[in-house]
Amino acid sequence: MDVAITQWINSFAGQNPLFDPIMIAITKVGVPFIVLMVVLQWWSREDRQHVRHVAICAGLAFLLGLAINQGVLLFIHRVRPYDAGMSHLLIAKSADWSFPSDHATASMSVAMTFALQKLPRRTLAFFAMAILVCLSRVYVGTHYLSDVLGGAATGIVAAIAVRLLYREDSKLDRFATSIL
């Protein structure tokens, strides 16, 4: 089923001269754009201390999620779908294994962080961006659907871990949120 859904999503790749560049752009600049949006939260006018805390948590979850992925990659060596002849690749080949998707981990860790901190409008925006990034990775042919689901799960776990371990209004948090 994973291969069938992956092939179905990827079957649209290379067929639409308008949609292909959009998906390629999302897959290339989606995560940097999300990072930029988190950074810009630092200058929020509403509930500044809390939003700054959330921005720090998002950064920590982002890094923790990617670190977890590096550990997973030591044990799971899944071939990319384009190397297995399962997808049509629209971007340059990747040098690492397919599972889990770092893009999905990075984007979903940020979205889940905002969800856990009860910032509903921001949460919706970040989840929309994360879903587009995840979908684009399958569309451009670089990941299976299960790769992005696995990456999303890693991002969610990282966000939950940061939520449990990094406390708002702790001495470290007060220092970090007072910068600038």
Automatic annotation (TrEMBL):
Pfam family, one: PAP2
Keywords, comma-separated and alphabetical: Membrane, Transmembrane, Transmembrane helix
Residue ranges of domain Phosphatidic acid phosphatase type 2/haloperoxidase in the record: 54-163
InterPro entries named in the record: PAP2/HPO, PAP2/HPO_sf
Keyword Transmembrane helix attributed: yes
Transmembrane segments: 22-43, 55-77, 123-142, 148-166
Keyword flag Repressor: no
SUPFAM superfamilies the UniProt entry points to: Acid phosphatase/Vanadium-dependent haloperoxidase
Protein name: Phosphatase PAP2 family protein
